[in-house]
From TrEMBL:
The keyword Zinc does not apply. Keywords: Glycosyltransferase, Metal-binding, Transferase. It holds the Pfam family Glyco_transf_8. Gene3D superfamilies: Spore Coat Polysaccharide Biosynthesis Protein SpsA, Chain A (3.90.550.10). CDD domains: GT8_A4GalT_like. InterPro entries: Glyco_trans_8 (IPR002495), Glycosyltrans_8_dom-fam (IPR050748), Nucleotide-diphossugar_trans (IPR029044). One of its GO terms (molecular function) is metal ion binding. This is Glycosyltransferase family 8 protein.
Length: 294
């Protein structure tokens, strides 16, 4: 039986380009995880005032409290490593800093990528027994192991003392044991790995988290992070990897695209128009410039 007397802490990181994705994600969480109080922390990487207001207006329950946090207040004076990959937003690194703002005494926090639709009740994850593990996550279905044959895992796994067959997590959903996270100093270790092993990095901070947390994470059922490149009955969370459903060139499951827009249309973005290739290209160039200039 799921307990409803807890206050659940959920974290997203988002820029203004991905706000429609975030809005749909929060709406899906609101509808499918009803029954518990939820504090949703949004690490704000340039979300406009109008978009923030629309997010607030889109909430249809008193069970959810939105809290916006400016990047400078979360990250402080720490420099986020730069990688020559304009397609990878720097916002992905912000999940490393959850310990800096979650209230003291909070036992666990759920980090979600903004390109996710929640179909199950996240309160179930508060029943998970961490044991001695630092985080709980889903094994990445495409990479699977650190020694992934096509090189997408942790290429220098042997240098780090791991085995080729050690499992590789997808960092889109992270259920974080805050006490263990802080004791192990995950943030510092992951940022150090980003600098020291930059030539080995694939997928930004996901590499860093796997390099630091290999064999220290609890495997969740794949239904909690189902990638939309194939359809699967019973998924509790859909992860819209690659081309997003807000883009004209989205090419994955039409069923999952329809599900996404079912939730988006329940928000202040119900009249949203798809983003074309040229607009995306301009955004990527701007993102690239931001990474270089800080």
């Amino acid at each position: 039986m799921i307990s409803t007397d807890r206050r659940l802490s959920v974290v997203y990181a988002c820029d203004n380009n991905f706000v429609p994705l975030l809005a749909a994600s929060i709406k899906s969480l609101e509808i499918n995880s009803a029954g518990s109080q939820k504090d949703i922390y949004i690490i704000d990487d340039g979300i406009s005032a109008s978009s923030k207001q629309k997010l607030i207006e889109s909430i249809g329950t008193a069970e959810i409290t939105l809290k916006f946090l400016l990047v400078k207040d979360v990250v402080g004076k720490i420099t986020i490593p730069y990688f020559n990959n304009a397609a990878l937003p720097v916002t992905t690194f912000f999940r490393l800093f959850v310990h800096t703002f979650i209230p003291e005494g909070t036992e666990r926090v759920l980090y979600l990528d903004s390109d996710m639709i929640v179909l199950g009740n996240i309160a179930e994850l508060w029943e998970v027994d961490f044991g001695d593990k630092i985080v709980a996550a889903v094994q990445d279905p495409g990479i699977k192991t650190l020694g992934c044959s096509w090189g997408g895992g942790v290429r220098n796994y042997a240098e780090l003392g791991y085995q080729s067959e050690d499992k590789y997590l997808n960092a889109g959903l992270l259920l974080i044991n805050l006490k263990k996270w802080n004791e192990f100093d995950v943030c510092t270790k992951a940022l150090d790995a980003a600098v020291k092993y930059q030539k080995h990095i694939v997928y930004g901070d996901q590499y860093c988290l796997n390099a630091v947390l290999a064999n220290r994470w609890l495997e969740l059922d794949p239904e909690w992070n189902h990638l939309v490149d194939n359809e699967k009955p019973g998924a509790k969370l859909l992860h819209y990897i690659g081309n997003k459903p807000i883009y004209t060139n989205y090419s994955y499951s039409q069923k999952y695209k329809d599900i996404f827009f079912d939730y988006l249309n329940k928000t202040a973005w119900k009249d949203f128009k798809l983003v074309g290739a040229l607009t995306r290209r301009v955004r990527m160039i701007k993102r690239f410039v931001r990474k270089i200039t800080g």
